[in-house]
């Protein structure tokens, strides 16, 4: 019989660790939280220091009974839940339920799930960190008060389905505010003049800069034409050439935030998919052979840039051996001021396990993410990339044109990794080897009209970056926050963009008008700092709540009366209810708009809104409609579903059939956009 019991959060982690510890240990999973606040009530005693009333989570009773039984029979119980405040709180709840003294040496944490790390952690157990527990309690209670006090007002007084949350409401506001900026944006016209110049061998483009040594803007076509007329018939003479070198340093290893951003930009993962995949890489993957089951990355919820000395030495040795000594550059990165430095940055647990070595043992998602993490970490310990640069000024009859170029002199870290970006950047080429006084040939000169562009909508990567920069939420909250605002229908995903829905705009407007502090970015950031102070042990969690609640309660009381006066009128449609003859109205749900009879509750008739595609079903000839799955993903199906089972993910082409077989045509997305025939027996294809 095993004499020692070790409790972790997930079965996958339990399986990995069991193989490291052997027969003396029994390793069981708590399956996350076993004790929490009940969903059916506030469960916070507002009159007595905000004491939370915890219960065993529904469905976890049998599991907790099993853990109690095994703990009773064990000589020693170790609590090895995740190494963060959430994990600390789970361990604290387990300690209380299993009658383990939280001050005893019962808590075990490891930043990576490898044999050495797990065995070392077991040798150095500690007591439960009550500062971490209190930080989790403070956040949990604060979020419960905000959500459970404001949400009922919104859906009772204003509209069913509306709800609020401390971090989610701020994130939604940021997306809605950006949408307002876009809608209110007034484009400004400007023009550029571009000269295509050539020396004896090579041509390049130079842009008009000024006639006065200070950069000039050209507001209209007439201004641009004046520049063209000014240089017409004149020589283009090189009047200055500046050559130099520029160094580009590698980015640091990943934090939670930067991992989510780069995974979105480079491999198209949303934040939830990134974190779920990272969790499996951290908990352990069966690689077989001598490697066995290995946790491939360190803990993935961190905002620290620190790496261990051993990990750095391993990386430097790997780079020296595989790339050469000139590529080695030991670097330690400075973690930002408010970051929690309990864990290292996200890195591979063993750099010698290259992504290609384990590709066949990983899922596609695991391989892509592990490759990204491995490459970023290796690159972070490599030399800078060096570029030869050239900046040229060309003059023609007082008009100055400028051009710049660069070329790689030494690839450095870019041999392994290049950082993703939300912006599309033109690839810069090296200019010809020009000399001062050289006369160039003008091949063509062209004026181009442009308009200033509104700010871009948030992508998930950009929103995570904005939340982090503004101090909203913490590494563990970014993915669930985005998931929540999408699932509740406040925000919709359109390709990579996050677009506020009508429901999101309405809710945000109400929150701004009546619960300003809750959606105020500075207020929320200041609250995050106070919660961090609880975690650091410099502030009591009850004091945070005592400071927050009185003005919140006062505002709440005032808002109840004001919000009750709000009336959101439903937009009337042209569709007549076939049951009672009234004109149906548009209603909002988290799945989008639908039609409902205004005679509710006497008439409960509802209808989905038909979004026609103009294409016919190849099975029965019915109309193909655009539809949405429960998760909000767009698909296309026959109007006679489920009687006719025709469904596809690709958008059908309206009012056109395959010229080869007469079948349905589909629009294929991706890098190579094209039109294909839906029939498996037809190979018709054309570019879009």
Tell me what you see in this structure.
The chain is of the alpha+beta class. The protein contains 17 helices and 29 strands. The strands form 9 sheets. Strands 8-9-14-13-10-15 form a 6-stranded antiparallel beta barrel. Strands 18-19-20-21 form a 4-stranded antiparallel sheet, with no helix packed on it. Strands 22-23-24-25 form a 4-stranded antiparallel sheet, with no helix packed on it. 34% of the residues are buried. The mean pLDDT is 91.
For the structure shown, list the relevant keywords:
29 strands, alpha+beta, six-stranded antiparallel beta barrel, four-stranded antiparallel β-sheet, 688 residues, 34% helix
Question: Would you summarize the structure shown here?
Answer:
Helix content is about 35%, strand content about 25%. It has about 700 residues and is an alpha+beta fold.
Secondary structure category: alpha+beta
- Rg (C-alpha, Å): 31 Å
How much helix is in the residues? 25-40%
Distance between the termini: 67 Å
Strand order of the largest sheet: 8-9-14-13-10-15
Oligomer: single chain
Envelope shape:
globular
Poorly predicted spans: none
Mean pLDDT over the full residue set: 91
The largest sheet is:
6 strands, antiparallel, barrel
**Strand residue content:** 15-25%
Number of DSSP E strands: 29
